[in-house]
Design a protein that fits this description.
The protein has 21 helices and twelve strands. The chain is of the alpha+beta class. The strands form three sheets. A five-stranded antiparallel sheet has the order 1-12-9-6-7, with helices on both faces. A hairpin with a 2-residue loop joins β2 and β3. The model is unreliable at 287-315 (pLDDT under 50).
Length: 653
């Protein structure tokens, strides 16, 4: 569309419009990481705006050019263009351009703060971060005054980034969330992706890698829609750290490789050298044009003065011309001969050099071949040791899970669907029968695989101690004590370890009138009850979380929004008591089933389709439901990798 517009602008000789089209085309190349093409269009725009004397336009173009150097870590050149932009914007009294310059100078200071932090100079880092913060606040004041939602959203994101670096995570999360809301409402996918990525980084910093993965995937999805190379690169980096945090090393490695490849395309040496060359070509072309006009005039004057001055007659002139022609032909011939000789000599040198390189490469290949054979043998040995260790870990984890006969005895008509992502799992199910009450839980620990399994042992042990050692029977009391024991266990490492678990904990019991009751308490995870629709109360029918169908509906009871483990805003756990009806079906679960990617579009299943599926299976016996849920999961997953551990407990009253 911009190219079509450009053609029309040329037809009507609209120079200002032509410059604007060049800028917009440059912005698209810029967003997609094609910096050479972007810079080419920016300089075309700049040339026209300089001819027009458009100070505000020149200021804006300087900002864009500075951003190219900024992305390639050339902060000095970037700052030079930004300061040029600010100077012209102030002269033109153009608020939007002033705002952009302030923002970009804030970005440069932020990057300098990062560099100082990497060099372990925290004092210098804080100075630069504070200076950056001052520029961002100046920018925000202008954007608020002009009511620019786009600018306000961008400022919120930048402010959040500084507070994130200053370890003020709550403030950072607040600004990132505000930015994401604005950008989403405006439909600005680039800014929305950036904000969601930054929210993910906050969760990653807190050790909540599961949420970090979720936000990272949203960020990546939106970045890919616009082919935003910078945002895609940032999402890959976040997902690498997050997948590593949850123990999904296969995806972590993939994300890291993608991060490195996209980073190379952003700041490769070839890009840097070509960018510098583009600037040089522009500056040189500008100077050459001015010099050429002057030189042509001087040559014309000299030709008039010297014309036939030394020639006494036409014959002499012709003789001189002939001699000059012969000299020129001779010089051309000698030059060509010299060039040919030089070419032959260079080719001989290149051929000799190539032979040396080939010989060296053959020797290196033999050495590498032997090294690879040795490494292959060592890898096989290591692989065998790791497999043996994991199998032993599997036996240890199975020892903490209730045996099948205990499940059947206590649950009656019920099932447990347990599908670890790897050999061992971060999910586990738990059960105890105390004083006539049956306690059962579905738990999801931080991570999966071996790290998740280790955390599951700590959390399972804490649940057992809460009940057997400290005699707690109420679910909320059990969760409060379990959290205390888990934090106490991890505190022995001397670090603020934020590992723990999400859990749905139920207690089945009978009151003195022999009525069946259920008490529920949860940490992030809910309880679902499938019940005949005619038995629902009015408030249950009006609750937006209730999934209603004609015969059977699912009502939902939320757990507390906090995990079992260290958390910034810990509160006491709540619980709810529910009267049960014959035929009610109770479901508790971890998030692995609903979060699985699959189906025709390769998307997450999500919770609403999960509820619908449970209602479709409601008429079956519980063991048949188990089989159907498992087969549906496998079909849904298809060729996709399982993303997380799966645990579902179902009980029919």
């Amino acid at each position: 569309y911009y190219e079509r517009s450009l053609e029309l602008k040329y037809e009507i000789s609209d120079k200002k419009g032509i410059a604007h089209c060049y800028l917009n085309i440059g912005v698209i190349f810029h967003t997609q990481g094609e910096f050479i093409n972007a810079l080419n269009y920016y300089f075309k725009c700049l040339k026209i705006r300089e001819e027009l004397g458009d100070k505000a336009g020149i200021a804006g173009t300087y900002n864009n050019i500075g951003a190219i150097y900024h992305y390639q870590d050339d902060y000095t050149t970037a700052a030079t263009f930004y300061n040029k932009s600010l100077e012209l914007a102030l002269e033109a009294d153009k608020s939007s351009k002033i705002s952009h310059a302030y923002n970009n100078l804030g970005n440069v200071l932020f990057e300098k703060g990062d560099s100082a932090l990497k060099a372990y100079n925290k004092e210098l880092a804080d100075i630069n971060y504070d200076a950056s913060l001052a520029y961002y606040k100046k920018t925000l004041a202008i954007e608020v005054e002009t009511n620019s939602l786009t600018g306000i959203g961008k400022c919120y994101n930048n402010l959040g980034t500084v507070y994130y670096k200053k370890e003020m995570l709550d403030t950072a999360l607040m600004y990132f969330t505000k930015s994401a809301e604005i950008k989403k409402n405006l439909g600005e996918l680039k800014g929305y992706s950036s904000a969601m990525s930054n929210i993910g980084k906050v969760y990653s910093k807190r050790g909540d890698y599961k949420n970090a993965v979720k936000y990272g995937l949203v960020a990546l999805e939106n970045a890919e829609k616009i082919k935003g190379i910078i945002e895609i690169n940032s999402s890959y980096d976040l997902l690498y750290e997050s997948y590593k945090g949850v123990g999904d090393y296969k995806n972590a490695l993939l994300m890291h490789e993608l991060f490195l490849s996209t980073k190379d395309s952003i700041s490769g040496k070839e890009n840097i050298s070509k960018t510098t060359q583009q600037q040089f070509q522009y500056e040189y072309a500008k100077k050459f044009t001015a010099d050429s006009v002057k030189q042509v005039e001087e040559i014309k004057l000299k030709n008039v003065e010297l014309k036939f001055k030394d020639a006494e007659s036409k014959n002499q002139q012709l003789e001189i011309k002939a001699q000059k022609s012969n000299q020129i032909y001779l010089l051309i011939g000698l030059s060509l001969l010299a060039l040919f000789g030089l070419f032959v000599f260079n080719r001989l040198k290149v051929t000799q050099k190539q032979k040396e390189i080939i010989t060296t490469q053959q020797q290196e290949t033999e050495i590498q071949k032997k090294q690879i054979e040795n490494q292959h043998f060592q890898l096989e040995e290591t692989h065998k040791e790791i497999n043996d260790s994991i199998k032993y870990a599997e036996r240890l984890q199975l020892a903490i899970l209730p045996r099948k006969e205990i499940l059947n005895e206590n649950l009656g008509d019920g099932f447990v669907l347990y599908e670890p992502k790897d050999v061992v799992s971060g999910d586990f199910y738990w059960m105890q029968k105390i004083k006539g009450a049956v306690l059962f839980a579905a738990s999801d620990c931080t991570g999966h695989g071996v790290p998740g399994a280790l955390v599951s042992v700590v959390c399972s042990n804490a649940l057992n101690r809460s009940v057997k050692e400290f005699d707690f029977l109420e679910p909320k009391d059990i969760l409060n004590k379990t959290r205390e024991l888990v934090i106490e266990t991890f505190a022995k490492s001397g670090k603020d370890v934020k590992d723990g678990m999400d859990i749905a904990l139920c207690s089945l019991w009978k009151d003195k009138y022999d009525n069946k009751k259920l008490t529920f308490s949860g940490a992030n995870n809910p309880l679902w009850i499938a019940r005949k629709t005619k038995l629902l109360t009015d408030s249950q029918k009006q609750d937006k979380r209730t999934y209603i169908s004609s015969e059977i509906s699912i009502i939902e009871f939320k757990g507390n929004k906090q995990p079992i483990g260290l958390y910034d805003e810990m509160t006491e756990f709540n619980q709810v008591e529910v009267s049960l009806f014959e035929g009610d079906q109770i479901y508790i679960f971890t998030d692995g089933y609903a979060d699985q990617f699959g189906g025709d579009k390769g998307k997450k299943m999500m919770y609403k389709p999960f509820k619908k599926l449970l209602l479709e299976l409601n008429h079956l016996q519980m063991d048949q439901q188990h089989e159907k849920l498992l087969s549906f999961f496998e079909n849904w997953k298809g060729d996709n990798e399982q993303v997380d551990d799966v645990c579902i407990i179902g009980v029919r009253v």
